[in-house]
Amino acid sequence: MPMTITEKILAAAAGKDYVKPGELINAKVDLVLANDITAPVAIKEFEKIGLPGVWDKERVALVPDHFVPNKDIKSAEQAKMVRDFAHKQELTHYFEVGRMGIEHCLLPEQGLVGPGDVIIGADSHTCTYGALGAFATGVGSTDLAAAMALGETWFKVPESIKFVFNGKLNPWVGGKDLILYTIGKIGVDGALYRAMEFCGEAIEQLSMDGRFTMCNMAIEAGGKNGIIQPDEITRQYVEGRTKRPYTFYTSDPDAQYAEVHEFDVSKIEPQVAFPHLPENARSIREAGNVEIDQAVIGSCTNGRMEDLRIAAQVLKGQKVNRRVRLIVIPGTQEIYRQAMHEGLFDIFLEAGAAVSTPTCGPCLGGYMGILAQGERCIATTNRNFVGRMGHAGSEVYLSNPAVAAASAITGRISHPEEVL
Amino acid sequence: MKLQGKVWRFGNDVDTDIIIAARYLNSSDPAELAQHCMEDADPQFSSKVKTGDIMVAGKNFGCGSSREHAPIAIKAAGLSCVVAKSFARIFYRNAFNIGLPIFECPEAVEEVKEGEELTVDAATGKIINHTTGKEYQAAPIPEFMSQIIDAGGLISYVKGRVNHA
């Protein structure tokens, strides 16, 4: 029977030859993940089960990245609980401040996720790893606790939607624009309970970083997972990096899809998602005159090396508008070091930007860049819900790093062509 | 179990940041989370809600973050259940796992108004609007989810499995 890549990975993890959408299965997981917000709740639930230890010390990753370096005493208590648990359980993959990064940038970089894996994480953007041809999805803390005990979890096999991106990308258009455009077309519940499979000529030419960005935001359309078939670009990324053996799965040509959408990317301009939902995406040429107070370049969506290079390309020799704060956040320590060696920090600092240690802080209104009432921010992050980055009366606009950098220079939402 | 209370209405795509803003996630204490439930939509919400009250909302309820703090905040605020047109999938799973009853019933959501009195039969999914006298039927709960509820939640279910291993 023909299957999609998502169905094949789930069938293998469930020890079956074949699964079909709607079927409930128990599947082995290759890695489970939690952060400093979700792990404390998971640890409390795990302790109720009464087992002395987790199912596998090598396969539980804990990444404190939301409120660290600790922003206040309560955050410090949460981070300490995660740290104490990691040390007591002798977990291999616990990442302390100074060695850590934003979880979804860090895990692929460290080779902890690979093609064909089944991964659950107590963070909705766990779907990022679909970019490597893995089945990865977000769950809550209790589900995570159960998987820490059993090394498996239950899934309803999702139907798949196929998104085919034909043609060549326009200048300044990347993975972020393709996914914002897609969410704009299908809506924030357009892929509810379903797998989003991205393919076509434009995806085949997309860098690994651009693919991570696309799969990262599958959840913003309600998707259970985002996924891209692994290819030569995937192989180059995982070779010498991914620690466990991996398998390249591909969809059968006659696999069944609930829907198929085809887009001509040559018609897609850089996108901006207006408040207060990611589906409010429009072409930057239709953005109008939107003045901004802050720009944020970073997050698990766009805090990777390619993103920082693009931002630097726009900011080189330029100055951030005097009314604007620009905050740049490399996704991991390795990205931080690389950006430093390439001289990108000189460009950011000379432009008047603040450069931060890796953190999820501003993306979720945690700390570092909170907005006051009435303020507007353009951000390369993934959500622009009411109050997402601070006051309920503030606004977040989502874009790619080039648009965020250009907007920081002009002080209003701008196409990179305006400043170059 | 019969769930009964006054209706609090919200729109489509109620996200997890509205249910409980991330600025309060430096705590996982249910009582503390309850105080800030729905704060950015209605700052007085937590003080107005009475035990047993019912939240009614449109499509894609609970979209956004995986934070289990969201259903915990709703439950701890005293709400007995949520009736919506549809739920985001992580929220759906979390609600069952922590024991917050939720029901999908687009027909009821179309007609029920804020302040009306509802009874929801948790076992059958039958919804009665006492203000208008109309009855609705929510989508049945999948059998596997019922097993988790019957076991006393996911952790008790897993505990049972571990002890039998």
Compact summary:
The complex is a heterodimer of chains A (420) and B (165). In chain A, 30% of the residues lie in helices and 18% in strands.
Present the secondary structure layout:
The complex is a heterodimer of chains A (420) and B (165).
Chain A: H1 5-13, E1 24-28, E2 31-35, H2 38-49, E3 60-63, H3 73-88, E4 93-94, H4 103-109, E5 118-121, E6 135-138, H5 141-150, E7 152-156, E8 160-166, H6 175-186, E9 195-199, H7 201-204, H8 208-216, E10 225-227, H9 232-238, E11 259-264, E12 271-273, E13 281-283, E14 294-297, H10 299-302, H11 305-315, E15 325-328, H12 333-341, H13 344-351, E16 354-355, E17 376-379, E18 395-398, H14 401-410
Parallel strand pairs in A: 2-3, 2-5, 3-4, 5-6, 8-9, 8-11, 9-10, 14-15, 14-17, 15-16, 17-18
Antiparallel strand pairs in A: 1-7, 12-13
Chain B: E1 2-9, H1 16-19, H2 30-35, H3 45-48, E2 54-57, H4 69-76, E3 81-84, H5 89-98, E4 102-104, H6 106-111, E5 117-121, E6 126-129, E7 135-137, H7 143-151, H8 154-164
Parallel strand pairs in B: 1-2, 2-3, 3-4
Antiparallel strand pairs in B: 1-5, 5-6, 6-7
Helix pairs in contact in B: 7-8
What does this structure look like?
Chain A: One of its GO terms (molecular function) is 4 iron, 4 sulfur cluster binding. Chain A: It catalyses: (2R,3S)-3-isopropylmalate = (2S)-2-isopropylmalate. Chain A: It comes from Desulforamulus ruminis (strain ATCC 23193 / DSM 2154 / NCIMB 8452 / DL). The complex is a heterodimer of chains A (420) and B (165). Chain A folds into two domains: 5-263, 2-Layer Sandwich (Aconitase, domain 3), CATH 3.30.499; 271-418, Aconitase, domain 3 (2-Layer Sandwich), CATH 3.30.499.10. Chain A is built from 14 helices and 18 strands. With 420 residues, chain A is an alpha/beta fold. In chain A, 30% of the residues lie in helices and 18% in strands. With 165 residues, chain B is α/β, with parallel strands linked by helices. Chain B has a single domain, classed as Aconitase, domain 4 (Alpha-Beta Barrel). Helices cover 35% and strands 19% of the residues of chain B. Chain B has a seven-stranded mixed β-sheet. The longest helix of chain B has 11 residues, at 154-164. Chain B starts with a strand and ends with a helix. The chains are: A alpha/beta (420), B alpha/beta (165).
